[in-house]
Amino acid sequence: AVAEQVARVYPDKLLVMLVYSVYRQPPRSVRLHPNVIAQFCAMSFLHADTRIAAEDRRLLAQLGDAAEQRGIYDYFVNGANGSLPRGFARILCRNLKDYYQLGCRYFAAQSGLDFAANGLVYYSAARMLWNPELDFEGILEDYCRAGFGPAAGAMQQYWMAFQERWENFDQAGLRHEALVSALYPAAWRQARRAELEAARIAAGDDAAIAARLEFVRDGLKFLDLYADACAAAWALVEHGAPPVLLDDGADLRRWAAAFPDLSLIQQAVVCRASLMEWVDTHRDGFWIAAMWFQYQQRLRRGMLGRWMDIVGEILPSEP
Question: 75: helix, coil or strand?
Fold first, then answer.
């Protein structure tokens, strides 16, 4: 009824409706008014799981029977992942090509300012939305050549490592904190630092490229701190700490009071403090999506938020 009324007064205007959550199942007996864009919500970063990707494609194809005009709403950042670096640019390029072939002509994304870690995703989206005939390999080559000049080779290796890791790591059933530390272990991150060092050497005395490399290195520093903090928190769970904060945290407090190794608790608290200090000094820039990082900790009960506050209560106060 609303679409019909709008069409009578503004026949050239379109309405956008999110096809979200349980409503992603296409209607069987209703067809949307032609001035309504059905914007299908999909998370490309989850499409490393081919089962999820296939199901989303099936639903989107069926949506064509119920909506003349279709679009996509993707999630470049979200509450579940905070500002976690995720190598899904190659997946996104494949998806955007597929979405276009399925008839989608509108696109929007939930995005942040996490360019130091996930900048390739945003660049890939911009290029593919301009020309869906492009491919990821060409976009990656252009991104690294234009941004890093003589260091392009090392930077292509760096970004490809994130794609390969994200696409091939089995994330099923892992809580966020366990996922972060397992997905990006210390040895893997050290290999990325070696690639950035090779890029620095290749860049020579080019100040502009050096500044860009330092920006990317800052993003890797965030990942180092994030992974270390998650690993230290998860180590407490492996020693019996309840991972879910219930009610006022009484169960967690009882565990902490009885746990004999305060050094492990101290390590977890210190790692979290180092991470939060970095976030506080970088929140007003383009390194990470700081708001979504805080959202993950506070509203989704991340273990680096209130959970760690309660664990740390057992430690003696500093004089």
Answer: strand
In angstroms and rounded to an integer, the radius of gyration of the C-alpha atoms of the chain is: 23
Contact 241, 311 (CB under 8 A): yes
- Residue 74 has phi, psi (to 5 degrees) of -105, 170
Taking only the tens place, the pLDDT of each residue in 28-60 is 889 999 999 999 999 999 999 999 999 999 999
- Looking up tokens 């009071």 gives 257
Its pTM stands at 0.94
Give which of 102, 38, 39, 36 is closest to 75, Cα–Cα: 39
Distance CA 25, CA 22 (A): 6
**Residue 203: beta bridge partners?**
none
For 62, 121, 189, 203, the CA distances from 287, given in Å and listed in that order, are 39, 14, 17, 21
Convert the pLDDT of each residue in 52-81 to its tens digit: 999 999 999 999 999 999 999 999 998 888
pLDDT grade for 299, boundaries at 50, 70 and 90: low
Total Cβ atoms within 10 A of residue 209: 21
Residue spans of beta strands (DSSP E) within the chain: 15-19, 36-42, 69-75, 104-110
**Who contacts 281 (Cβ-Cβ below 8 Å, separation ≥6)?**
none
Name, in order, each residue with C-beta under 8 angstroms of 308's C-beta and a sequence gap of 6 or more: 233, 268, 269, 272
Single out the residue of 114, 129, 49 nearest to residue 78, CA to CA: 114
